[in-house]
Amino acid sequence: MPESHDALKTRLLVVDDDKKLCRLIKDYLTPLGYEVVTVYTGQDGLEKALAETFDAVILDIMMPEMDGLEVLRRLRSNSSVPVLMLTGLGEESDRIVGLEMGADDYLPKTFSTRELLARLRAVIRRSRTTAARAAASAAVDQREMPIQIGDLRIDPNSRAVALHGKPVSLTAVEFDLLLALGRVPGRVKSREQLLLEVAERDFEAFDRSIDVHISSIRRKLGDDAKSPRWVQTVRSVGYRLLKPGMEVEE
């Protein structure tokens, strides 16, 4: 059955003082491959949700002692787990309060099991998509963090270069070449490697063109090829960006 495959290893927490309803939800979802944990008080639900990992929480609003809104409020200060609220209340304002407090969706207690399944899948899918995007964004941010080498700063995101805090104006090709060297400071990159990294740029792709662009970068950085502080020529090989205190080797 397709539902069973989709729901593999999906853990749900049901928090409701209506034990009969909890049993109904568990009996319906378990054969579909969901692992369903049920608790019957708000306090137990909050403790369980914070102590264990769940893919979603089904949370009743109307419970004695600690109601669902209070559980949600405390839960949201520590967790972003998707929450599907169950409500027997007809007031639209009550549903809005839940959504504003961080609930992902709600269902009236007159729900059908098919609607419950559809809403569950939707909130879990949104949560996983959001998490995946956040992880991808974090990876990109980590990969594209500004590079600081001594007083030289290279920002891949804004494509900006600054030396001693002052901006350095580079062409697109010059920036890409400097960035390629800046990502591996101290390591030599051959002309061929540098050509490959900026190949999508529109310029003549032959070895000596790299030398021309490097010469321009040096001039803009106030560098000297004979006594380099930033870009060193490694004879018969290519170039490298020097790290502070690094000895210049022939």
Total beta-strand segments? 12
Backbone structural class: alpha/beta
Main sheet: strand order: 2-1-3-4-5
Which regions have little confidence, pLDDT < 50, spanning 5+ residues? 1-8, 200-207
Radius of gyration: 29 Å
Biggest sheet architecture: 5 strands, parallel
Q: In percent, how much strand structure appears in the residues?
A: 15-25%
Tell me the distance between the termini: 68 Å
Q: Count of helical segments?
A: 9
One letter per element, helices H and strands E, the order comes to HEHEHEHEHEHEEEEHEHHEE
Percent range for helical residues? 40-55%
Shape: rod-shaped
- Indicate the mean pLDDT: 84
Provide keyphrases for this structure:
disordered N terminus, five-stranded parallel β-sheet, alpha/beta, 250 residues
SSE map:
Elements: H1 2-6, E1 11-15, H2 19-29, E2 35-39, H3 42-51, E3 56-60, H4 68-76, E4 83-87, H5 92-100, E5 105-108, H6 113-143, E6 147-149, E7 152-155, E8 160-163, E9 166-168, H7 172-182, E10 189-190, H8 191-197, H9 207-221, E11 231-234, E12 238-241
Parallel strand pairs: 1-2, 1-3, 3-4, 4-5
Antiparallel strand pairs: 6-7, 7-8, 8-9, 10-12, 11-12
Helix pairs in contact: 3-4, 7-9, 8-9
